[in-house]
Sequence to fold (1967 residues):
Amino acid sequence: MSSEGKNENEESLVRRIQDSHSHPDDNDLQQQLMNDCFTYFLSLPETDHHLFCEKNKATILVYLLLVLASFNENEVLEELRKRAHTSLDKCTNCVIGFHAVRADFREKFINIRKISFQNTNVIMERLAKWEADYLSSKIRSSIDTPGDLSTTVTSCLVECMIWPRLLRMNSDLKSYFDHSFALIDTVDRENLSKVLKFYPGLIYCLFEGSSNEREWALSKFPYGDDTKTTWLESNDFNPLAMEEYEEYFYRIQDPDFYTDQRAVEFWCSINPILRFCDPEAILKKLQYPPTVESYTNYVGFNVVPLTQVFINQSLSYLDQPLPYLLRTLAIFLERLGNQFFTVIKPHSYLTFFDIAFQNPAYLKTLASTTQDASNLSQRVADSSTTPHFRDLFRWMTVCYPLLKESQKAQFACIIFNYMMNNASHPSYGNFFCYFALNMMSEQLDPKNALFDAKLTFEMITNSKARSLVDKRCIVIFDAIKNSALRVVALKLIKSALMYDVALLVQSGYSLSAGDSSVTLQTHPDLWNILQTKLTGTDVEIATTFLSALQNAVAVRSIDILYLKTRLQQNNTVPEDDMKKLVATCSKHNKYVGQWNSSVESILSKIVEYSSTQGMQSLARSEVSSVGIWSCVLSPEEKVYQSGISFLYEAFNVDGRFEAFREALKQDIPSVLKPFSSTLIIFVKLEIFKASKRGVRIIMDLIKALFDPIHGLLAMHVSSLSMKSREVLVDFWEAVWRFLRMIYRAIFVWSSTYERLKVLSNNKQMAERISSDLLEFTRDVLDLSHSVLNGYKLLVSAISFDGIKEEQLTDIQESIFQPVMSALKDEIMWLRLSDPALLVLCVNLIINVLDLSMELKVKVSDENIANLTKLCAKAKKYNNRMNKEQTGNILLRTRSMNAELVENILAAEEQRKREKAEKNNAAIRRAGRISSTKYVSPTVIEIPDVAPPRLTLLEQARLRLNEKRKRFKQPAKEPAAARPPGFNKKHSGSASNSEEDDDDNDDDDDDGGLFTKEQVAAKLKKSKATLSSIQHRRPAYSVSDKQAMIRETMNKKKKAEELMRLRLNVDMNPFYKHVLSWSYEHSGDFPVDSNISGYKVIADEFDTAEDYQKTFEPLLLLECWQGIQRAKQVGGEKPFRLTVASRSATDSFYDVYSTVDKKMITEQRLLLESDLMALMFVDNLPSTDKQLQRRHVSNRKCSCFARVRNIKISNSRYAELTLRISSSTKMVKFLSPSTEIVGMRVMQMTTVEREYSSLVGLPYYDLVKSITKAVPCQPEGLDSSRVAEIKKTYDVNDSQAVAIAGAVHKEGFSLIQGPPGTGKTKTILGVIGHFLTRMAVARNGSHPIQMPSQQVSRSKEHRRILVCAPSNAAVDELVLRLMRGIKNSKGVIFKPRLVRLGRTDAINEQVKGITLEELVDSKLSSVEKIDDNAIREQHRKCIMERDELREKLDSGKLPEAEIAKAEMRLQDVVQKRRELGKKLDEIREKRSVSYRNREIERRNIQFKILNDAEVVCSTLSGSAHDVLASMSLTFDTVVIDEAAQCTELSAIIPLRYGCTKCVMVGDPNQLPPTVLSQKAASYKYEQSLFVRIQNNHKDSVYLLNVQYRMHPEISMFPSKEFYHSRLLDGPNMAENNSKPWNSLYGPYRFFDVKGAEEQNEATKSVFNYTEASLALELVEDLFEKFSEINWAGLVGIISPYKEQVKLLKKLFINRFGRIITTQIDFNTVDGFQGQEKEVIVFSCVRAENHTGIGFLADIRRMNVALTRARSSLWILGSKKALVNNKTWRDLIENATERHLVERITRGFTKSNTANLDTFENYGQKPVDYGPKSADHSHKSADYNHKSTDSLHEVKEEKENNNHHLNKQTVKPETVKFKTSVPNSALHVPSGPHTSLNNHKRSHGYLSGSKENQNLMPPKRVRHGIIPSRPHHMSSNGNKRERFGTVSDTGGMFKLSKPKVKFPPHMQHKKKK
Fold:
């Protein structure tokens, strides 16, 4: 037969065999099948020795064998057995195949064929006996055959292991098996394990094998291999294995077979199998074998499942098997888990306690069994027939986790009770106690998260367990003393305490949600035990207690009043439930109070008895620190105070911030890690009162960490561990989560508290609530700013050296992500109603947006949309942001997503238009309805349809608002006042009502923290309804009016946008240039300059961009030259700085450093916005020595830095924030704690403001006029109008024309005012006319307004900005304005006036109206809180505490004294805690007080500026931060001395929406001071005035009448400089004719032959001859006219500073220092704008030097020649000066007039006839007494001006003014002798000499009546005058420098002192 046919035949037979099992009664089928099988057998060849290797063949042959075996012996059976033995002997695979098929047939015979177990067993026994006998004989035969035994034995061993029944059938075979078992490993390895993992022989060896065989079997189980916890699966329990297992399964249930020992052996044998079985194998195979039913029918007893066998034996309370049964129980539970409970039903886990605890043998066995060694192997533990201690309890630990939560609690309670009752047993008592305590601690330890409902259920479930702990608390606490039980006892105490904390947390949380079903319970016994028995010296107990408080932060009492208000507001709780809720809350609060007291008491004991080191160790411990910080953040005051007091004691400090700082110093992770986790819990509470303190706490932590100077990160940024970096990030994220919670929750808090204010009807409560909300909001915003400011420092801290740019970017973005997550909630705070808070919020949002742009982090479209809607004040986005604030935000949102922003704005505009049209239609309908009725403008007609009904609360608010409007004081001005015309409300305008509805809540706000929506909307609907029926004047149609309004609003919006662009200029590009320059470089150009980029300033520019390209390089060049000049002068002193930290920002580094405060406050070496040099210098002198410039000469490196901020604190150091370029090499020297040197270079404020004006120029209203240099064109003015102005303001024709033209024309108006022509009076006229001329309404009508709609004057009045280049010029104008100006009716009035500028640079007389002084006068006084007494008590407490601790620790105190000392220590610690609390309260109160004062200051500033009519400042000062931060507009700006300022300075004040600029100046006088001659060569020194005048010479208003100079003086300047257009005022010769004119005449040129010298240091020149002749000239004047009071009448000027110094020196040597108060010494440049009766002009230049320097400047010459009123005497070298044309013209003119005289030293002595020299002048005798009151108003007015300026001493630069003003005269006196009468040197009392002289008007003689009236009361005798302090010697005695005064009081004689020059002036004369 072919192989295929053979296979088909085999398969057919196998199928038939399988089918035959289902038809056991079909004899024919069975007979035929047997015949066919036999036929198949006969067909097999004799040589086939693998009959059973193939399954089909084996199935056929085994079937045939089993069938034949059921009959008697026969030949066929014999042949088959013979052939079978041949195969089995030769092939082990045949052995395995044969028995596998055999066992399978056995199961099928029993289960399918239903052959009885007995009959089947007979067949198997017969077959087994045949096989056993055959194997036995085979082995016996092999023994006698040499060399064949091993093979035979191996073959036999294989078959015996496959079918162990063979061993039970033949004792000889069993004996052979036992003796040859040594070969079993080989047999297993080579034959069995390759085919079968689990086979019957293993089961046999476990159950019946010898000890060696059993150990071998156990070794086959994978003990020790954790990967094979499940080794046996269901398919491993094949019929072969089950056949053997059934043998023992049935035996153990046979009553005849059972004994206790056999039970022990059974369970010990089955345990390894159970251990490695999967649950399915246990339940499907081992639990109930397949032949059980048949076997039960065979035997006489009931066979039950394996688990039931276990239960039955266990409940029999057997002695010996008990531990083994419990061992098996543990295995069952491990392998089956919860399925075991299902299998053993109806029994449960409680049955296990019956099995164990009800069996007396349990305790006996425990007592007799030693505790197991810890290294007991699992194999031994499972299979050992010796009981183990662990067998008796391990089942508990396995069972417990499998139970449900409620079952666990019961399980733990039963065990706890049982074991604690037997805990005293000497043998197992300790173990019982340990086990019970450990299990109970696990049970009580909270498993679920706080605030989860599951935790509440858990608390209820474990309540009985917690009660048991309280009952046993004494035993538990005593167990701490037992070293074996200490750990678990502390663990249970911790768990119990944590349970109590969690219980309070859950109760509070549920109650706060309005759940009145909370079941409250308390367990105080354990807490009481801790309070009474805790000594505090046990660190572990303290650690346990503190660790148990980790959730204390979430325990809170319920604010019942707040809760009721909130729930009633939402109408969520019925009244009955509310009563129940209130009662439950009260009970909860009682329990919380008890808990608070317990915590306070226990912590106090820990503090009392712990050492400082011990407490610090607790604070550093990761376990205990979390409890400390949880207490610190606790909402409960007592707990908070306990926690913070712990820190005070631990670190010996008296303040919270100091405690935090010290804790962080010791270990950052031990603080921040627990604090962060605690804060995350705290965030979930959302409690307002707790959050108030939480904000303050976090502010202290942030300051301790992120302060750029003293913060821990700044000082240790490079030494932070990786763990510190990780916890810093966690802390950062937690803080932002906290802030985000507040941003969201504040709306609920504020609305609830606002409702509470209304319901309480308690004024004090309402005020307290409002104050708390405001202060809290300020704190939150301050904290937000502080945290955000720490961003860059944090990035620096967590970065590392060598970090890649991509990694740094990832760090920056990940750190910034929490900030962005909070942005959405931050944005909604823009609805804050308080202006000051709103300013903080807007700044915060702007800072976040700026940082996101810097980091290139995308802001979500949702956030951009919300910001835009808020800025547009869209529906439901109402807010109080002013235009400036919304503009700043829109500026940034547009740069992020311009399309989205514009779409939203357009949609909002469309919505408003549609609403306006709807309102118009309503108005038209109302107009038609009421057209037949007469409606009085003052009477409101109530409409037929009532307005929408208001709720009771809204009605109450409405009444409250109306009441407030009637009685309240004027409201505070907002943080930034709105410009005039914004948000006005008019009764007849639909658009305005629409604006009201959408844009403003001002009138409807009820004082809440945020703007209201619903109430305000309803109120406004009512207003709209009422206003719609009011009488309207039909001047034009509604649609026309709407079009006009829309056009006006569009213009306003455009103007607002332009102003924002002007005021928000990025200064970084400017400083990228400046800070990159090298300090070491010198020259005319900086290193990075491109010389080809410099251009000459054109007369006009095509575009603003061209203008910027020309001016920006020149501005930088001028800045560079300023730096070079500062280096050359070298007047600044170096000082030390200590670097704290640095942070990177864009192209810069911000360097934080400290400096000795004296350098700032006393020596004033540095100011904000200064440019300074930073230098690294080796080997600096010791810190006690002052640094000198020579010390920095050997510097290693240097760079420029800009001072961004100076913070002066209470310490001895000031904090500096400096910005440097990131490209500088200096960076590597700027490590923390590095000492560097700083030195001021120059002030940058003016330069910065010029640059910002240049960049913002394209957005100026006058940009075209500026670039094109176009003025407004003068037009022919109505003569009647000019005459009216002339009369009204008492001015001349040219002044009247200038006033009229300037006021009425937009653009630039230029007024040229030559010397003495009354520029100031003209300016006053312009101001008065502008402020008071009638404003005509554009539409010519005045709408009738309701009283509530009238706009306050503060929003309507006109406002003008008046500027000048210098403080002196500004102050002169201010003084005149202070006296009053005329209005358009000619009536004197005093405008509301504000002077901006630094107080130290302003005239004393003006300081009263400076913004700073005005604000200070209105500020409320600050309550000074003195805490010195408390600090002293605190210090004494610390000392006493330390003494008491030392005594107690010494152990020397007697018992009686110890108790007293402990009590006293407790009192001292408590007192110190209270004092510390008071100090913290004082610190916070002081902080709030000062912050509120700053807010008040800001509000007052805004109100003052908003109310001001005239604001005066220097050009640079007009960009004052306060002014720039407001939405004020100045459409008119007046600039005095406009020709003396650079063009960029002139455009600074035009940034405030200026459309009309009046520039007053004289181009023929001094030009702007420009330091860079290179820049000047490009016409940078040309003023805007001059550039416009050059383009349009006929567009200038010339003031052509001068009222200052004697005609003799004015003749030449008028001819030379003004083409003879300058005319003299009436009677100028008479008015300016003085007695001394008879001496040298009004005008004279003295030709002096002298020598010119130069100071090498300053390069300035001087002429000693001229100086000495000037002294001689003045001496002669004083001597000959001694009766005249010369104080303030004489000025001595020179073009050169060195000459001025020399003159002052000579005069001081001659007259004493007091002469500087009598005579003004100044340069020509410094004297511009001033005038004197007598001017002595020293030209300096001499014939020994070629050229006359800048004397050739005709503008400087013009100034010098026009300063004198009555006498001008010029000292100069004729020969030197004639080289210049203008000077030559002057000398020729003077020569023609006979006014040139050559003089030498002593000329006044020889010239005695000079008194008669000028008699030919023909002047009439003049009365030199007081002037009459009716003299020329022009002269009087001008003299008024000129005398104002007598005390001004003006240098080239703006900030060098008024140094003479500060030389106040002291009341001491000095006596001296001189040849000059005292009256000539009279110094009036008072601080301001020149001003007092001004008051004398023209009464120059000391005897004049007017003079006497104006002089102050005389204090001293004649000849004794007030002197300055420097006349005092060092020991305080008066110096007798000039001798003593004679009794006669007449002349004094004094020899002339020799002049001794200082070293720098001792130079040889030039050849």
Summary: The mean pLDDT is 81. The two ends are 147 Å apart (CA to CA). The first strand starts at residue 1135 and ends at 1145.
